[in-house]
Amino acid sequence: MSETLRSDSAARLPRQVADAYVDDLIAIDPISGTYLGVAACSSRLPDFSPAGRAAAADLSRSTLARLDAAERLPGADSDVERRCGRLLRERLNAELAVYEADEDLRAVSNIHSPAHSVRDVFTVTPSDTDEDWAAIAERLRAVPAALAGYRESLALGLDRGLYGGPRATATFVDQLTTWAGEDGGDGEGAGEAFFGELASRGPEALRAELEEAAAGATAALAELRDWMRDVYAPAVADAPDPVGRERYARWSRYFNGTDLDLDEAYAYGWSEYHRLLTEMKAEAAKILPGASPWEALKHLDEHGTHIEGVEEVQAWLQGIMDEAIENLDGTHFELAERVKRVESMIAPPGGAAAPYYTNPSEDFSRPGRTWLPTMGQTRFPVYDLVSTWYHEGVPGHHLQLAQWAHVADRLSRYQASIGLVSANVEGWALYAERLMDELGYLKDAEQRLGYLDCQMMRAARVIVDIGMHLGLDIPADSPFHPGERWTVELAQEFFGLHSGRPADFIESEVTRYLSMPGQAIGYKLGERAWLIGRDNARAAHGDSFDLKAWHMAALSQGSLGLGDLVDELSML
Description:
Blueprint lengths: L13 H15 L1 H7 L13 H21 L8 H22 L13 H8 L8 H30 L6 H14 L14 H7 L6 H30 L7 H13 L5 H26 L5 H11 L2 E3 L1 H19 L13 E5 L9 E3 L9 E5 L6 E3 L4 H7 L4 H10 L15 H17 L6 H26 L17 H10 L5 H13 L6 H20 L5 H9 L6 H9 L2
Parallel strand pairs: 2-4
Antiparallel strand pairs: 1-5, 3-4
């Protein structure tokens, strides 16, 4: 990036302020830099201590001050500058609200914490050359200090009476044990330590150095695990898992990019539940007459189409994405060649049960990748994988996030990467599932019931995530415990009765909602925003509405909070 965009430059418009912020952020957050593909970040890790978090907050405050000045300059009111400035201001204020409430002092989760970030970044760190592996060795040596800083933050949280949830804490202890190569009680059993396995793939010339660094990183995992188990877990044992309305509203703003009417959102979740239940019953009747949707799904677990073998399912999922790209390009999307590359991967053990996606580097040298956690399984029913890979891969996360990277020079680096709003991204991916259903790609009742089960899971997320964190009542017209107040136990029971997924997945999901309040509702509410925006644009254009053109314009805007998203999509 040119020096004119650095944070010490003079007159800067909002996009320049945003991109200078990215430069300054990756200097203190090299994990973000690695995801962007910045080679200089490959050897370092962030400071997760209170001092490190304070430095990130100071950067946010100083950037907001520069944005104030930028928005007074001539040209700042153009559409591209206005949209970028609005996103930057909303994101930094949402992040500061979380920081100023000391949420980072109780950041314990089964899917998203500093420790998860430290582990996961090694799956995307370049490893093609000896120089790459030398950087990995240096990054491995940085693991103990990074985890010590995280522990320092959690310890300060304990001192201040700010506690992570006991359920997430127990799960996290098991995960740390698995990462250290021991039996974490998660059903996957003991295996090779995560960092040890990584070191074993390095070049012979650096093997001793890598193994020594990996041993130190593994010991740091075990040390954190022991402290979490022996000190932290007993201290938080009586803390509530639900966070209450005030904390929930703060996190909801962070993940959704707007201040939601939570009671309206809860009601919307129930309306979608009833709609989807009717559709699911119709599809279930085609598979197993007289059976409930979930009885039909259990039947498919045993007797439905399935893939045998981990390598086989990896190749099959790659085929789904390749076929979607071939069929959709030129008909419903216009895809650049570099956007068409996406890889199917198997997730390393010891994470959450849900599939996920990692976006390409800025220069596309690292492609976008979808990840399947096998949870120790070797047999994979396909009914819940088809639409899930439309969600994670194509036309879901991959098309959106790769397109952002492709048009970053027309947006800003910030809009195409760091400025991501979770509900925008997850909403597009759920819209992508629905689009493939609308286009007829779910070829039979088996695949369509699996798709509807995925949709039902997202509606149930809105219901239980808001319901259990806010302690709301279950409506009188609910077939499930009408009139009772939500508890964690009822949430897990509700999920178990309304999902075709196994018990370990359901337990992992509920733990995720408890430790990431407000994130899970963004899928269904984000999809609603995308659908409203499309409907508004179609109504405005009438018969001249071009869905392919709308898709590409929508995917080239960069991220937006849900309120802004509807406004911008409606004008395309």
